[in-house]
Design brief:
This protein has 111 residues and is mainly beta. Helix content is 12%, strand content 32%.
């Protein structure tokens, strides 16, 4: 699993310029990597890869977003998203793989 660094001065400056976006994690699906209420920074321009944590539009609950890890990308180019806390995660095991358009951005740092 890729380590998620703490945001430094540079990352914080990118928030001010609009290049990074703050996102508050909700729930326990990404424990122990991310906890409920933890704030992360998201790069909407980054190209996500297997192992990255991403913010994605929920494919069923259209008005909500989820934070999950990319477990793999299948041969159709669909992203399989899995929570680090598999016992308490609504993820691709329930709703299936998602297309790239569902990925809102890559989580690049924690605050």
């Amino acid at each position: 699993m890729k380590e998620l660094p703490k945001a430094g001065f540079y990352e914080m400056a990118l928030v001010l310029t609009g290049t990074r976006h703050k996102y508050v994690c909700e729930g326990t699906s990404m424990n122990p990597t991310l906890y409920d209420g933890e704030v992360v920074l998201v790069d909407r321009r980054a190209e996500p890869e297997v192992g990255d944590i991403v913010v994605a539009k929920h494919p069923v609950e259209q008005n909500s977003e989820i934070v999950k890890r990319i477990a793999h990308i299948n041969e159709h180019g669909h992203y399989v998203l899995i929570g680090d806390n598999a016992e308490d995660s609504n993820d691709s095991r329930e709703f299936g793989a998602v297309t790239r358009e569902y990925i809102k951005g890559k989580v690049v740092a924690r605050l």
